[in-house]
Amino acid sequence: MTRVLILSWEYPPLIEGGLARHVRKLAENLAARGVEVHVLSRGGEEQPEELGRGVHIHRVREPTRPTDLGEFVAWVERMNADMLAAGVELGDRFDFDVVHGHDWLVATACHHLARRFDAPLVATIHATEHGRHQGWVDKHPQSHIHGVERWITNRADRVIACSFYMREQIADIFGIADERVEVIPNGIDPEDLPTPGWAELERLRGEFAEPGEKLVLLIGRLVYEKGFQLALEAMPRLIAAIPGTRFLVAGSGTHEHELRRQAVDLGLTDHGTFLGWIGDDVLHSLYRIADVCVVPSIYEPFGLVALEAMASNCPCIVSDTGGLREVVPHNEVGLRFRSRDPDSLGEMVERVLTDEPLRDRLIAEASEHVLRFDWADVAAQTAAIYGQLTPARSAASSDA
């Protein structure tokens, strides 16, 4: 049996973003395949060790993360030191065959632990600082984060990317041979998208739109690279074309204040709602009550929001960029608009809101399309990488 130590800076119930959900589903499905999975993450008041759904979870208690990015980098370094110490203790108890780290946030700890265990290192890169900042990584702290990403990807025995777009970016930016980067798309589990009763959905929709109005959903982290400013810029024209159209922004982030100010400047105050951060139960219900979900990202490694929308029978419109091109084939399961072009975005939204046969066809095709993104397949492909790397370790040990 393969025994793997997975490092992640977040793991449920501590959720900062999509990374926690990804690692949980991957870990649970690896365990279901017979891999002995240990996850080392940070925690708060949770038990330092527990077994959940076949996964051995080990938590290192850390103070609340700072919001200032400069302070956050120093905080990450301290977290890595604590994870390294905890990982060394785990290594005294368990003989790990593979170490698997997720993103730059745990790079130092996973690299040193892999070397200490004489185990192969797998690194999953979910996004890059270069991509998030459109290549502007010459100043601290972006330069530091970019450097850590380059360092860990060049030291990992195998790198995993969530899309072919990300594989090309990782290979080009960090100077890595394509064959060292494996593409394994993210997965989705329909059971994680519960469907409330119609009465509850009608009540929820009534909070944001009147009968007969159209509701445009924007959901995710409110940061510049997610492109919500483009969707807001398109709203006045859309409202003029389809009176009664409203928008709903669900999420929080560093760009929230600017987006709220933009909505005021565009005269949109009475045409939409900023919800802020909300829990998964309400968040997933929003897909069910919206007439269309827009993913206007400037930079998008994969596009999980689009996948969730399609799995929830919500028509999806995405920017023609990054991993979204792979997740949403144009005019088959959703529509794509020209990246960074609010006029193109508005045209696509208007098409979906006024063409009911198109809407119905997209929903039907998308419900089949999302079945391709199965967590069991993700786990199987990941376990295969572990299997490719562990024989090399065994051979090296026998030669020693």
What does this 3D model show about the protein?
Strands 3-4-2-1-5-6-7-8 form an 8-stranded mixed β-sheet, sandwiched between helices. It has a 6-stranded parallel β-sheet with strand order 11-10-9-12-13-14, sandwiched between helices. The protein folds into 2 domains: about 210 residues, Glycogen Phosphorylase B (Rossmann fold); about 180 residues, Rossmann fold, CATH 3.40.50. It has 15 helices and 14 strands. The chain is globular. It is α/β, with parallel strands linked by helices and about 400 residues long. The C terminus is likely disordered. The longest helix has 25 residues. Helix 8 packs across helix 13.
Relevant terms:
single chain; 400 residues; Rossmann fold; 2 domains; six-stranded parallel sheet; 15 helices; 17% strand; globular; disordered C terminus
Number of domains: 2
Please work out how many helical segments DSSP would assign: 15
* Total strands: 14
Note the main sheet: 8 strands, mixed
Low-confidence stretches: 394-400
Order the strands across the largest sheet as they lie in space. Answer: 3-4-2-1-5-6-7-8
Distance between the termini: 22 Å
Determine the CATH topology of the largest domain: Rossmann fold
> Hey, roughly how much beta strand do the residues contain?
15-25%
- Backbone structural class: alpha/beta
Radius of gyration: 22 Å
Identify the CATH homologous superfamily of the largest domain.
Answer: Glycogen Phosphorylase B
Shape: globular
Mean pLDDT: 94
Level of helix content? 40-55%
The appropriate CATH architecture of the largest domain is: 3-Layer(aba) Sandwich
Q: What's the helix-strand series?
A: EHEEEHEHEHHEHEHEHEHEHEHEHEHHH
CATH class of the largest domain: Alpha Beta
